[in-house]
Amino acid sequence: MDDDDERRVEGPAGDTRTQYERMLAGDWYAWDEEIAAVMRRGQELAERYNATFRTDRPGAMATLAELVGSLGADTVIRPPLYVDYGAHLHLGARTFVNFGLVALDVAPITIGDDCQIGPNVQLLTPIHPTEPGPRRDKVEAAAAITLGDNVWLGGGVIVLPGVSIGDDTVVGAGSVVTKDLPAGVVAVGNPARVIRHL
What is the value of pTM for the model shown? Predict the structure, then answer.
């Protein structure tokens, strides 16, 4: 990245935040070595968790607790698990995550208590510019994803940046959630639409 790229994401005059601090705040940021180091740590821990889950369950759970930002009691994540950082992923108690979760936790991803996450679900917080120049320069931002308690995401659900899903809501398999969903509904489709109140 050259000096011009740095200037594009410096922000207002006097903003002395690091790129990582800008990332955590949800502002536009650019890749640097600090971010790369945090990502490497998360991906190494995720690889260790995935490799040891079947052969050393206590060790795998200790690795998972080290990887994620917070982990509630009796929560299970079946590997493989894929994260950007891991540290920004927060899981409540008694939640079950099936195979193949992709949690791109550039911004916080919070999953409540007693949730059911189907196989191959994608929780995607990154936002890329629509303008070609900044996108070519690899400028990025992110918006948090929040799942309330007792949410069920069917297999293959994709949740986009900035989405919140209310308590007790069910999202049908293969749906793409582009906007917030209230508590206590069933939503399906692309984009996901409420079809029933519970």
Answer: 0.91
